[in-house]
Amino acid sequence: MSARVNRSPLTFHVTLTVLALAAFALAMVVGFGFYAMMQADRASLKRQKIFFANGLQDQIAAVEREQESIAVWDDSVINAKAGNQEWMAENISVWMYSYYGHNRIYVLDAANRPVHAMHEGQLVPPSAYREDQSAIQPTVERLRQLISQPPNENQASGPVKLLAEDLVSLGGKPAILSVMPLVPSSDRVTQAPGSEYLHVSIEFINDAVVGKIAEKYLLAGARQLPLSQPISSAAIPLMDSHGVILGYIGWDQERPGLTLVRKAGPALVIGALLAASVLAFLLRRLRRASFALQTSQDQAQYLAFHDTLTGLPNRALFEDRLRQALLTASRDKARVGLLYLDIDRFKHVNDTFGHPAGDELVRQTAARLQQTIREIDTVARLGGDEFALILIDIRDIRTAEDISEQLLQRLQEPFKLMDDQVFVSASIGIAISSGPDVDSDDLLRKADIALYEAKKNGRGRYQVFAGDMDDLLLRKRKVESELRNALNGGTGIKLVYQPIFAADGRTILGAEALIRWAHEVHGALPPAQFIAIAEERGMIGQLGKWVLYEACRFAIGTRLPWVAVNVSPLQLRDFGFAEQVASILRETGLAPKRLQIEITESVLLESSNATRMALAALRQSGVGIVLDDFGTGYSSLSYLRRHAIDKLKIDRSFVRLLDDGDGSSSAIVRALIDLAVALKVEVTAEGVETEEQKMQLVGMGCHQLQGYLLSPPLETTQLLTLPGLSTGDQSGHAIAHA
């Protein structure tokens, strides 16, 4: 009995101790569980806020990239300054709304005055800018200050990307504001510093934008919250550059810890009796929660470094892999190849088949690129239709060329888009690392230059970067600078004139103005060479205006019936060209009928509204339109009839055939002359160098002759020595001389 009594307190104490230990263990487990729950929820909330902040920055960057696609474009500069409202609507306002969802677009001139406006896909009067001006003006002024700053001497060569962005409140709604200058995409168009038009793009941060961010990071219940609504912890502020809060983005907070505790609750009750089992259960659940969090984090990290449309590495991951590849190559003394690739005329596919078809074309292109390259190589999408490929450990340039050839052939196979077969091509620029000290930025620049050369040389091809491309670029810039100085009061640029004679070989019917440049270093430069540079570097408008003015100023002081001036196709694409010619005629006092504009057949093949309008306006004013080098291009009767040409000039290559004594050669020239007669236009034969050529041409009915047999191009003083040309009589009649 006593023993039993003694054991009972012992048993009680043991039991109490066990229970106490179990209770302590349970309390520890429960306490740890709640602590882990709060830590998990806190860490999860922090990650969610980072996701939304990064997503907002990505959305701002996306607006800037989308805006840059039209802000850096020759046509944008030309048409904005020309006030072409229809073009701006189709390409830089309504298009930005329909394709990218930008809600409001404004185009400001050099004085920050609105010249174009769009709200929600509808054109509105430019005066609508006033309702947003107070919010937009600080950002516009900040961009103007950036533009006005002189370039940094340490700045890398190449164009500087200028933009100003901010978050603003418009009508009580927060919005992304991005302002960029409209700048040329090539050197064919130039504009004076400070004369830049500005493109203002606004995208409201509404539930759709917030939902897009939330969808990317798999968060639920995302919404835009006004300032008046109470804000929970699951929210981030929308703050402008001055720290002013414009609103909030809120969402349904994910609480993995709380979810875990709720699910583990029944187990915790049972665990009061089986502490060890409860602890094991909790550890197992925590491990699962940790795995779920890690999976979510891995997915977010994947989305941050991959393109959502194609699944390819994006620019950030591409640049990191390129740096790693170059570091490895420098250690192993290997070579890395970089390929820049984009789809030729991708915008045409979008405009023809729609943007979903364009996205599908990008996806299929990405798949073909991945299937063609090796597993160790990298293909990335940089944006739009631009791709980059990193080729690891290649032997030589030939390896990169072989891969490029395979890629081009693969992309030439038809694509199936919207139940249609579409054929496209691509252009590729190739750059190869040349040593251990290769910089990734330098390699990117070289590949970009090579891609530009590939497109310039005909598209649908690849181009390897060569050292002389840099040298050629420098030489072109030097010639451009010297040509600009010559036009701005320098010396060396002048006009000579080659008379055009009647069939008798004595009567002067007119003269063609020809440009010459006696360069101080290189001597007489071929006109085709420096005119091509002027076209490429955007100076042809200035050069053409100088030639027109000098030719008209000379003609007004002579008795020449007319003077002919060659015009570049690029000049005719300028909507203000016809008015420019009219202004020069008014300023010099030359009658329109005494001026002839010579164009090439390529002009007729263009379907440019600006070109058609310019030719029609010139002809209506009395200026003659001459088709130069007739028969060497792709002219057709439909083009000739549509544009109502006043004169055809038979190219010297056909005139030279007359010396062959071949009847078929004479028949070709006769056919050209008969065509001109049938069209009831005048005809001039160029390059007449022999008496036999002259006699045959006159016999065929050609009554205007030009060539060295009759007269070479003459200096103005030489031309004026011809009898009857030095007086101010402007009767416009043909002039005979001995």
UniProtKB/TrEMBL annotation:
The chain crosses the membrane at residues 12-37, 263-283. It comes from the Bacteria. CDD domains: EAL, GGDEF. Keywords: Membrane, Transmembrane, Transmembrane helix. Residues 476-727 form the EAL domain. InterPro entries: Biofilm_reg_signaling, CHASE4, EAL_dom, EAL_sf, GGDEF_dom, Nucleotide_cyclase, Rev_trsase/Diguanyl_cyclase. Residues 334-467 form the GGDEF domain. The keyword Acyltransferase does not apply. Pfam families: CHASE4, EAL, GGDEF. GO terms for molecular function: catalytic activity. PANTHER family: BIOFILM ARCHITECTURE MAINTENANCE PROTEIN MBAA, DIGUANYLATE CYCLASE DGCP. This is Bifunctional diguanylate cyclase/phosphodiesterase.
